[in-house]
UniProtKB/TrEMBL annotation:
Family matches, as Gene3D superfamilies: Histidine kinase-like ATPase, C-terminal domain (3.30.565.10)
Coiled coil residues, start to end: none
Protein name: Signal transduction histidine kinase internal region domain-containing protein
SUPFAM superfamilies per the UniProt record, alphabetical: ATPase domain of HSP90 chaperone/DNA topoisomerase II/histidine kinase
Residue ranges constituting the Signal transduction histidine kinase internal region domain according to the UniProt record: 166-243
InterPro entries: Bact_2-comp_sensor_kinase, HATPase_C_sf, Sig_transdc_His_kin_internal
Record key words, sorted: Membrane, Transmembrane, Transmembrane helix
Length: 357
């Protein structure tokens, strides 16, 4: 609780320290460094100028920037600040005339020299105008940075929500069709090879456990993801006929890393959805390599496209679109994806590289 209160007070402390430093250097230390005792009217003016700049800073911060500048009224914002700067200078010019500041300062610095009125020193007034503009500029910058941070936080939260919703959709998409077909295949196996059926049930249970628990996390171990892929492929083998040539290369030993769950599955699943024909020879190649925390997935299959009106065809398209979106969100600058489906061999090729460092 104390840490939470302290964190909330940090911005206030920073503001107090910042203004203390600014006020001390510009309005206190700098005049005192001259070693001359100045009149009270001068110190009153310094205090009024400091208070005016503080008020300007927060008026600009809380009102002008959010209510005018961020509402795309830039011209009005600039005009109001220009008027404010000229008013700021004008008020203290009147104050100097009212208190005879020029004569008082002359007596403080040259008490033995008779005072002779001179023309106004506009360079000093211009310096005051620059101080005002500096206060406005810093105020605008702070407000803009805080708005950017707030917008970025909202954007990240929305992206994370979208990632979670897309992953949930992906999980829901794979469950019905795949598990239903696999259970039918296992049921058929019980009359042919009981031991193989038991092994298939074990693999299916491991996959269900992965889908239920590992995908709830933001990341999972790469080894678990590859085990899931292996179980998936082994269960898909139950449906393959002798017309299907399956070439598989998945490493057994490698340096483990973390990866977002179910990123690779849609590409592997796509091979079996579109790469198998009941009448023609089919070829599926799946190669996965891990080198220095980089994952390389290369798949090749003939392109026997399912109708988009079928559950498999529609789900496949949505699944790949979701996966591409997740790659963009999770590994924006750390992945490359190349899909080629237009070639004389009628092959569908996927080359995916993900940097897990």
């Amino acid at each position: 609780m104390k840490e939470l209160v302290l964190k909330k007070q940090i911005p206030l402390i920073i503001h107090i320290l910042g203004w203390s430093l600014f006020g001390s250097v510009i309005f206190l230390i700098s005049p005192l460094s001259a070693g001359v005792e100045r009149p009270n009217e001068f110190w009153i003016k310094q205090g009024l100028m400091f208070a005016s700049l503080v008020a300007t800073f927060y008026f600009n911060y809380f009102y002008l920037v959010p209510k005018v500048l961020f509402k795309n009224k830039t011209s009005i914002f600039l005009l109001l600040n220009l008027i404010g700067g000229l008013t700021f200078v004008g008020i203290f010019m009147l104050y100097d005339d009212w208190t005879n500041m020029s004569e008082l300062m002359h007596k403080a610095f040259r008490p033995d020299v008779p005072y002779k009125p001179r023309g106004r020193n506009y360079s000093y007034d211009f310096f005051n105008f620059l101080i005002f503009i500096m206060a406005v500029g810093i105020s605008t910058s702070v407000a803009a940075v805080q708005k950017w941070q707030s917008d970025e936080k909202v954007r990240v939260e929305r992206e994370q929500q979208q990632i979670n919703s897309e992953l949930s959709y992906l999980k829901a998409q794979i469950n019905p069709h795949f598990f239903f077909n696999t259970l039918n295949n296992i049921y058929s196996l019980t009359n042919i090879d009981v031991e193989k059926a038991k092994t298939a049930i074990l693999k299916l249970s491991r996959m269900m456990r992965y889908v239920l628990y590992e995908t709830e996390k933001e990341n999972t171990l790469l080894s678990k993801e590859l085990d899931f892929i292996k179980d998936f492929i082994e269960l898909m083998r139950l449906r393959l006929s002798e017309k299907v040539e399956l070439v598989l290369e998945i490493p057994e030993k490698f340096d483990d890393a973390v990866i977002a769950p179910m990123l690779l599955l849609p590409f592997v699943e796509n091979c079996f959805k579109h790469g198998i024909s009941s009448q023609k020879h089919s070829k599926i190649q799946i190669h996965i390599q891990i080198k220095e925390k980089h994952v390389y997935l290369n798949t090749v299959n003939f392109n026997f496209k399912s109708s988009e009106n079928t559950p498999e065809g529609a789900a496949s398209g949505i699944g790949l679109a979701n996966t591409k979106r997740r790659l963009e969100l999770l590994y924006k600058e750390k992945h490359s994806l190349d899909i080629k489906d237009q070639n004389p061999e009628n092959e569908y090729r996927v080359n995916l590289k993900i940097d897990l460092k």
